[in-house]
Amino acid sequence: MLYELLFPLRHEATWLSWLNVLRYLPFRIIAALLTSMFLSFALYPWFIARLQKRQIGQVIRDDGPKSHFSKAGTPTMGGSLLLIGMVIPTFLWADLSNAFVWVILGVTTGFGAIGFIDDALKLVRKSSRGLKGWFKFGLQVVVATGGATFLFTWNGFHPDWLATRDVVAFPFAKWSAFGLVIPWWLYVAFAAFVIVGTSNAVNLTDGLDGLAIGPTMIAGSTYLLMTYLAGTTLRFALGDKILSVQAYLDIPKIEAAGDLAIFCAALVGSGVGFLWYNTFPAQVFMGDVGSLSLGAALGVLAVMTKNEFLSVIICGVFFMETLSVITQVVSFKLTGKRVFQMAPIHHHFELKGWAEPKIIVRFWIIAIMLALIGIGSYKLR
Length: 381
Description:
Distance between the termini: 38 Å
Strand order of the largest sheet: 1-2
Oligomer: single chain
Strand content: under 5%
Shape: globular
Largest sheet: 2 strands, antiparallel
Structural class: mainly alpha
Number of strands: 4
Radius of gyration: 21 Å
Order of helices and strands: HHHHHHEHEHHEEHHHHHHH
């Protein structure tokens, strides 16, 4: 909004010429990051105090680790401010004529609304059960499919997106040589699967103080770099040739993806503000309103940057948690035995005696390593 309102004024008067700085994406990325952090640090103390006054606190599952019982009553639904911290800075600093911006805001907000309703029902019922599983999943599929359908059927996008939107890329393989072209309707289903799967993977990971937000910020920072590279043509000299970074790294050029870096910056900034109050011992939990919206955002970013399969590495911690749940369920149904003491896997380490901060920090370290592998895959192409 500020970009839309202020940038055209740069030619109105000499003293307004400084507004030309708004044309530069790095400036707006930094501005979005700082804006989201300011909003978070300004609003969370008030938000937490209001929740405590109204006695709106987390309901702990009876079948969870006993060490979590002491967390009952901790203010929850902090993800509401995470969502605000992503949406408002993006509105302020992104180019609102870019349809990519509206798609990611729409899907992220849609998943946040589903999570908000789920959290609200849990609080009203004073139970760990909110929306019925099949209904909650159905709503997620509707929102994800709606966003994916728009991405792959609307022809108003930039030509470079239209040329690449139905191509599936494979990690560590050349984009130009190993892209798999599939029908748009099949790609819509695939994209929706990526978005819903990533959203629920983050939701499963949100079980310890700071465990989910750390890898989310790391993945968001990775996508910030990837969206910037995909949407900005940077050139450099290599011998007697002038090459673009996109051509050198074999990255599909998606001009519209540049403004997604502003959203990524807002995601990281709001995550930093939330982590200040969510770090062990947590003063506030994000709830489903936060975990579902954050996961959906990461899923949409994977689709828009053509990194659907690479997202398994970039978001590896979340998929590791999901895989542990699937493994546990399948093993118990087939053999009657459990592979882990408790799933998701972070609970397994808790029951083995690991201190909560140790689990959290080690998972963050793994997330950093996986993000570096994801970035490194560009060069290995």
